[in-house]
Amino acid sequence: MNPEHYSKLERMYLQANINTALYDTTKVKIDEGLAQIELEISEKYFHALGAIHGSVYFKLLDDAAFFAVNSIVKDIFVLTTSFNINLIRPVDKGIITAVGKIKFKSRSLFVAESTLYNQDGKEIAFGTGNFAKSKIELSEKIGYK
């Protein structure tokens, strides 16, 4: 357990340009092998049919799985090498929550899964991704502070 590491990852995530500019209602909680990301739905995320676009599902699912992995990699940034999602049902209001957790780890490969829930706790999407260690050090230069 390393609460300081988790807090630095949370700050890095929330201070990323995409989250401050577009996903500004995002909340994140990171723990050992686990990440939870919440987003309040807004019409700015809607496609023509009035529900959130699949790219929002993808972002939250990938981010939750990614940070579950980076919670156990304490020195360098990990990278998503592949990520597959399954959309189950549309959502057009409330708060959605992605929960990511690690399924497999080796020296060079990590597999994590994440599930996205609506505010009633119903599953609306899920995904699985592969992650690898990069050569980028976790440092203040990338917002890890």
Explain the overall architecture.
This protein has about 140 residues and is an alpha+beta fold. The protein contains 3 helices and 6 strands; from the N terminus they run H-H-E-E-H-E-E-E-E. It has helices at about 5-15, 15-20, 55-70; strands spanning about 25-30, 35-40, 75-85, 95-105, 110-115, 125-135. Strands 1-2-4-5-6-3 form a 6-stranded antiparallel sheet. Strand 1 and strand 2 form a beta hairpin. The longest helix has 17 residues, at about 55-70.
The H-and-E topology, N to C, reads as: HHEEHEEEE
Average pLDDT metric: 97
Percent helix, as a range, is: 10-25%
How many DSSP helices? 3
Question: How much strand content do the residues show?
Answer: 35-45%
Strand order of the largest sheet: 1-2-4-5-6-3
Label the structural class: alpha+beta
In total, the number of strands is 6
